[in-house]
């Protein structure tokens, strides 16, 4: 696990970016605190920051070259089947100087070119320069677990693991207001866009080939999803459970591959508990880490994590945070963001990673299970809506009541009213519009009203609609069911929120986060299952819960689903009040010219009144953007 960045200069003017390559690599130091390397050959420069997990020897440092010196690689990730691939390459006559997976990736590319990607099991981004053909090949893993951003103009091609590296390389600092409009709805900017005009994210399962001043992009992997085929899966339920045990155990064992100890995040939910239960079979006294909020019991799940830790005799660390503790991490977390990212749970993941990173360099997590097996509230809502019935009709008819009652994420009752109001609103829409409503934190009207009127006429135009259509493509199948929604979640929520969150927050502390549920074989199997195996009227993630019930404490099955959240409204009203004073003042808003000062005033008033819980995410999104804008753009 590492950070990579590089420059391909097309003209003499473009070569000036090579002078900034060292600074770009330094911006990625947190991703690789164990070492650094830089190589400039002609018009191409490659730089690397190293986090040593596999192949710890000095010879495994990067950039790495093949024996001939023709090919050079910078690589970020882990290929878990590298030993098997290495043996096959040796049988074919290839020799190795290191024990690293980096060299295996390089040699496999020399043998098979882009076809090598299909043989790699793990997560990765790598760039390989061919000095003879003066070309650059850049590839990203199937589900985008490792990030890659790039920029091209007439003079140069630039790339890096985070936007901060590209900013050091000199990309234009011009806000993409269509991206900002999406961000205000979602709390993140979906790929392939970024918050800066001209800067793009390489899509998961894609590669780039750069030669003769041209950039070609190609998809090499597509999620194998067919809703109609899944509905007729030939395996019966016990056979499906047996298959799940097989693929998930293999994924867990693969992700324990390392030359150093691997720990695990343990939230107390089903997903991370299953991962810990499986990992503990192979790692005695597995180091586990959980985070809780001792001043906010509604958000605290540490007692459930404790039960799992005790059952599997893990070496357990419990981090009990106060909102004051969160404030202690606030500015460092915000400074770690090259691009605005306002999933508020990132603050808790940042704090958790800070502690875990002092003891281990890699941890397992349960991310991805909700998107595979229907674990979110919106999945049960969609299931119930498609099923119909008197209860559903009653909720819709009472929409006038849900609209006026107080809504918040701060308590059980207020949160339930919030959910009922969103359900009733979504029930009146077609599947695509309903999905977008339930996936966003602010609707399109609320988001566009926050922007200065000079931007309102353009941000919701053809570019926005094209981006939105791509994100919702899974919902356009002739066979629409809940699996279509899970496919959309896999593309939108997992790929642009959950995966970047664990990567950014973990790597801010030199900590690699590995999720067995993101194994491509697990995902392929999960998307082959019918909806009936994943959810019914009484249970979500049905097959996951049923398959591993005997391995987990029964208390985990006797409570409602809880997301991984922080007590955001209280935090913003108290400890982080200074942030609001800095970034939502009339003076700054007017001088900045991006947002509508009257709408920001209304938002401040709503937050100060009893409506804080319903607008907290909008406020947080604004504050995160403002901090980023002041640091990088102002």
Description:
Keywords: ATP-binding, Glutamine amidotransferase, Ligase, Nucleotide-binding. This is asparagine synthase (glutamine-hydrolyzing). Belongs to the asparagine synthetase family. Its EC number is 6.3.5.4. Pfam families: Asn_synthase (PF00733), GATase_6 (PF13522). With 634 residues, the protein is α+β, with helices and mostly antiparallel strands. Among the domains are: 218 residues, 4-Layer Sandwich (Glutamine Phosphoribosylpyrophosphate, subunit 1, domain 1), CATH 3.60.20; 220 residues, Rossmann fold (3-Layer(aba) Sandwich), CATH 3.40.50.620. 45% of the residues lie in helices and 15% in strands. The chain has 28 helices and 17 strands. The strands form three sheets. A six-stranded antiparallel beta sheet has the order 2-3-1-9-8-10. Strands 4-5-6-7-11-12 form a six-stranded antiparallel beta sheet, covered by helices on one side. A five-stranded parallel beta sheet has the order 15-14-13-16-17, sandwiched between helices. Strand 6 and strand 7 form a beta hairpin. The longest helix is centred in the last third of the chain and has 26 residues. The chain is globular, with a radius of gyration of 24 Å. The mean pLDDT is 92.
